């Protein structure tokens, strides 16, 4: 229990910075507590969590400055978050200062008069957590602070979040599948608390998919090893998950060129040509159905006058890349896919919990936006789950911001927030070891 | 051969960026990086590799590739922070901000600490046991929870069939899972988080479908094995391309 004085000071401050510090993007927003308006997706800004450097225009872009970038060619990134955990505080500090204390109006706040609710990944090494706590209080000097595992906050909002009203009670049983940039984690929650021993993690996340796409395109077409930004864009635009392994085999046949002397026409309903941006006329590329004549012309010669275009044909890359989420063993990762990991996580829990969790599964994280992801996940889980069990699986309305919204709703209710916040005065008195224990759930 | 030993002197200091790591002994995942046994597989008495077993070289290549695919930052290019950095406010903050360590250093630290706390019974082994039991139960049982209802010891077949069988037919207690035990729940809720390295999902069980093999070059089914390095290709054309670029024979 915090002492009385600190409780007063924590509640006197009625503005909370809710920050989901992801490896790829920061999800941030200032939430006033005890206000009548409930926070919505619009209150959340998604900011790239990186410092990018272009070799071409010799410019360095910090976080949201990336929106002004006009040439993403050979853009190099420095990301302060590695494997989901804040590792490099030099870069993270620069990004936080730029976004929350810089010239930009939208999220500017005075840390001494703001509470911080920071969301992290599960299974964070203790040393890194300690570093984080120390920086928050000693460098930024936030008034009060709470650190929690991000996706657990999804319990405080319903999947169709826009319509629902915030409730002070978390959902009783909730299974969160968080398929994010770094990795994919399975988090069973009971009354908003994480069942830590059942958390499971898959190596496959958006980053691995993008890099795999990059590797395949570089092997088969042009050298794209430096074009991370472009390949991420291509992945988001064209990739899809096949509905079943059988359909995977069919699509693989449709994209096969055939043997020497027995050429096949590529099926243009699957194969697409991606028109690459030249960063003069177009910053972003686009996909269009495959045209064999055009790609033959590409090999011959391009018109000297008129618009030139470079095409990247994409066949089985479109569905073989996101397939890794379901079959990591395709490239030799010795893990079962998402459905297998879900069953593994549930298998150590008592049966009553298992039933409750399966009846309320929510998927968050950017990979779930890949076309066909949800039907495939539901179909594969259904085959693994005993037929008597109810299986209810939904995707958060905006899967990227879903956990943030839960946290924002949590933060907008002063009585909930007061329970968990730790003020700077308390930290100064009791130190970081005490703080780590307290956030770990010990009192 | 003369015995050479580096004696510690006063100049030896703890540099940031590396740490001593406790050697935990045999770790099959690390053997692949640094195979000690350079002898041919055929010379090993345990016999030849199976059809689908990977050579040490292939395992190294796969492990390296996965590490490459999930890397966050390129160590070769260092991007400086633009602008003049603000001064750290405390000594502690300065120390943390100046760390140049990567995530693998922190994870190695965590591993080393775990190894030091070995006297505490390893948590994961317990959970694996439970997990295996759970898996076995799930795969075999029709989940109407045979362990919840006691074994059918009393046969109500002939005795009072009119009263009891109606009850038995209407009885739903067999399909309702046993209620949550408060103590188990408390234990689950208060369990400490697993260390990062132990939170990963298990590999697919051995009885599952075999690993799918794809062409190294074009991504179609890999039906042919390269005789030199064991990678899979789909046909002659891709085999030529494979040998020209990716074959591990000379890697």
UniProtKB/TrEMBL annotation, chain A:
Component of the SWR1 chromatin remodeling complex. Keywords: Cytoplasm. Component of the SWR1 complex which mediates the ATP-dependent exchange of histone H2A for the H2A variant HZT1 leading to transcriptional regulation of selected genes by chromatin remodeling. Involved in chromosome stability. Belongs to the actin family. ARP6 subfamily. The gene is ARP6. GO terms for cellular component: cytoplasm; nucleus. This is Actin-like protein ARP6. Residues 285-308 are annotated as: Disordered. It comes from Didymella heteroderae. Its main location: cytoplasm. InterPro entries: Actin, ATPase_NBD. It is found in: Cytoplasm.
Automatic annotation (TrEMBL), chain B:
The keyword Membrane does not apply. The keyword Zinc-finger applies. Residues 139-151 have a biased composition (Low complexity). PANTHER family: ZINC FINGER HIT DOMAIN CONTAINING PROTEIN 1. The lineage of its organism: Eukaryota, Fungi, Dikarya, Ascomycota, Pezizomycotina. Keywords: Metal-binding, Zinc, Zinc-finger. This is HIT-type domain-containing protein. Residues 37-57, 136-156 are annotated as: Disordered. It holds the Pfam family zf-HIT. One of its GO terms (biological process) is chromatin remodeling. It comes from the Eukaryota. It comes from Didymella heteroderae. Residues 211-239 form the HIT-type domain. GO terms for molecular function: zinc ion binding. InterPro entries: Vps71/ZNHIT1, Znf_HIT. GO terms for cellular component: nucleus.
């Amino acid at each position: 229990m915090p002492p009385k004085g600190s409780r007063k000071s924590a509640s006197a401050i009625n503005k909370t910075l809710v920050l989901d510090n992801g490896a790829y993007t920061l999800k941030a927003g200032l939430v006033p507590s005890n206000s009548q308006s409930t926070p919505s997706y619009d209150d959340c800004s998604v900011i790239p969590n990186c410092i990018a450097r272009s070799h071409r225009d010799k410019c360095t872009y910090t976080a949201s400055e990336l929106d002004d970038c006009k040439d993403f060619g050979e853009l190099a990134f420095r990301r302060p978050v590695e494997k989901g955990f804040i590792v490099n505080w030099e870069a993270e500090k620069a990004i936080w200062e730029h976004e929350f204390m810089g010239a930009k109006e939208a999220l500017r706040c005075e840390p001494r008069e703001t509470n911080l609710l920071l969301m992290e990944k599960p299974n964070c090494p203790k040393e890194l957590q300690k570093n984080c706590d120390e920086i928050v209080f000693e460098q930024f000097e936030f008034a009060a602070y709470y650190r929690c595992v991000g996706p657990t906050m999804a319990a405080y909002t319903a999947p169709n979040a826009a319509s629902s009203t915030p409730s002070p009670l978390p959902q009783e049983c909730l299974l969160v599948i968080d398929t994010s940039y770094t990795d994919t984690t399975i988090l069973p929650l009971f009354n908003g608390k994480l069942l830590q021993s059942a958390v499971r993690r898959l190596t496959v996340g958006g980053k691995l998919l993008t890099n795999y796409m990059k590797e395949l395109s570089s092997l088969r077409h042009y050298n794209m090893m430096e074009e991370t930004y472009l390949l991420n864009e291509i992945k988001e635009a064209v990739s899809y998950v096949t509905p079943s392994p059988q359909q995977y085999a069919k699509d693989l046949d449709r994209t096969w060129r055939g043997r020497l002397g027995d050429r096949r026409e590529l099926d243009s309903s699957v194969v697409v040509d991606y028109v690459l941006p030249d960063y003069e006329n177009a910053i972003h590329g686009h996909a269009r159905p495959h045209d064999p004549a055009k790609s033959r012309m590409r090999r011959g010669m391009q018109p000297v006058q008129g618009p030139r275009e470079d095409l990247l044909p994409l066949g089985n890359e479109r569905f073989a890349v996101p397939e890794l989420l379901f079959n990591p063993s395709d490239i030799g990762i010795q893990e079962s896919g998402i459905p297998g990991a879900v069953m593994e996580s549930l298998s150590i829990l008592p049966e009553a919990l298992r039933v409750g969790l399966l009846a309320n599964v929510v998927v968050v994280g950017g990979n779930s936006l890949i076309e066909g992801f949800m039907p495939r996940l539901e179909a594969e889980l259904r085959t693994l789950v005993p037929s008597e069990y109810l299986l209810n699986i939904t995707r958060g309305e905006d899967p990227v911001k879903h956990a943030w919204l839960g946290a924002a709703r949590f933060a907008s209710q002063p009585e909930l927030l007061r329970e968990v916040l730790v003020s700077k005065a308390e930290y100064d008195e009791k130190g970081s070891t005490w703080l780590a224990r307290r956030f770990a759930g010990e009192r | 051969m003369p015995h050479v030993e580096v004696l510690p002197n006063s100049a030896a200091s703890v540099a940031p960026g590396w740490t001593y790591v406790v050697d935990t002994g045999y770790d099959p995942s690390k053997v692949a990086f640094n195979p000690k046994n350079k002898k041919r597989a055929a010379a090993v008495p345990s016999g030849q590799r199976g059809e689908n077993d990977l050579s040490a070289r292939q395992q190294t290549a796969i492990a390296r590739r996965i590490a490459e695919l999930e890397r966050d930052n390129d160590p070769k290019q260092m991007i400086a922070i633009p602008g003049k950095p603000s001064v750290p406010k405390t000594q502690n903050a300065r120390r943390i901000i100046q760390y140049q360590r990567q995530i693998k250093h922190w994870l190695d630290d965590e591993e080393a600490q775990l190894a030091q706390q070995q006297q505490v019974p390893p948590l994961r082994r317990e959970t694996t046991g439970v997990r295996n039991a759970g898996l076995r139960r799930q795969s075999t049982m029709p989940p109407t929870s045979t362990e919840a209802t006691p074994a059918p010891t009393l046969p109500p077949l002939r005795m009072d069939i009119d009263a009891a069988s109606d009850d038995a037919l209407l009885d739903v207690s067999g399909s309702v899972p046993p209620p949550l035990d408060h103590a188990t729940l408390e234990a689950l809720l208060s369990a400490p988080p697993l260390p990062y390295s132990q939170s990963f999902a298990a590999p697919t069980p051995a009885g599952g479908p075999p690993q799918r093999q794809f062409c190294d070059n074009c991504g179609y089914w890999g039906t042919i094995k390269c005789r030199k390095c064991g990678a899979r290709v789909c046909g002659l054309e891709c085999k030529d391309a494979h040998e020209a670029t990716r074959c591990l024979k000379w890697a």
